[in-house]
Design a protein that fits this description.
Elements (H helix, E strand, L loop, with lengths): L6 E5 L4 H12 L3 E6 L2 H13 L3 E6 L5 H15 L4 E4 L14 H29 L2 E6 L3 H4 L5 H21 L4 E8 L5 H4 L3 H10 L8 H12 L10 E4 L8
Parallel strand pairs: 1-2, 1-4, 2-3, 4-5, 5-6, 6-7
Helix pairs in contact: 1-9, 3-4, 4-6
Amino acid sequence: MKFNDKVILVTGGGSGIGQCTAQAFAELGGDVLIADINDKAGNAAAEGIRAKGGKAEFIHLDVTDKASIAAARDKVLASRGRLDVLANVAGWGHIQPFVDNDDAFISKVMALNLLGPIELIRAFLPSMIEKKSGRIVNVSSDAGRVGSLGESVYSAAKGGLIALSKSLAREGARHNITVNAICPGPTDTPLLKSEPEKFLEAFLRAIPLRRFGKPSEVADAIVFMASDRASYITGQVLSVNGGIAMVG
C-alpha cells in the first residue's frame, strides 16, 4: 500500500490510535495532517514523523467546535488544495451507570463521538465531491454494535456513527467516495488505562485472545480501508477486537 501524494487528516492524532494511524500513513508516503486539541502532543507527534523522514504537520482542532473545524478545513484546502483521506479517530468515553450521566457528560460524549465526526465530514465532503474522489474512515466501537455495560450513551453515539457511515457510503459512491467504519475492542490506550483496574480485568477475561489490542493493530485496519486495496469496499464495519464480540 502506498499513499504517495495523498493528503490525509487524522483527528486525535496526538496520541493512542490516532498517533499510530498518523505514523502508519506517513510511513507509506502520505502527507499527514495531525489534528488534535492537545497542541503539545500533536506537535510532538508531527515532529516524530518528520524526524523519521515522513511528511507531517500539526493542526489545532477541537472537534466539538464548529469554528475550529471550519478553520482547519480552510487551512487544509488553502495549503493542500484537497483532502484525500479523512480519518475520524478522535473520541472519548468513560464507564459510568446511565443514571449517573448528567447533561454535561452526555453532551461531551455525543459531541466527541458523533456530532464532531458529522461536522468534519460536512466540512470536507463538498471538496471530495468536487474532486470525485475520497476516503472516509470513521472509528466507531464494538460498543456501537453490541452495546456495553456502563457505556449507554457512548454506545448510542458510536452506533450512530456506524449508521452514518453506511448511509454516507450510499451517497458518496456516485462520487467515488468510500465510507467505512472501524470498531476497536478494548485497546491499550491512555483512555483505557484511566478506567478502574476491576474493569480492565473484566475486559481481559472476556477477550478470547486474552490481551488488549495494540493501537497499531487498529491503525492497520484504518489504513487498509483508506487504501486502493479497499477501493471496492464501502459501507462496511470491521471489528478489531480480539474476538470479544463476534458479529455476523
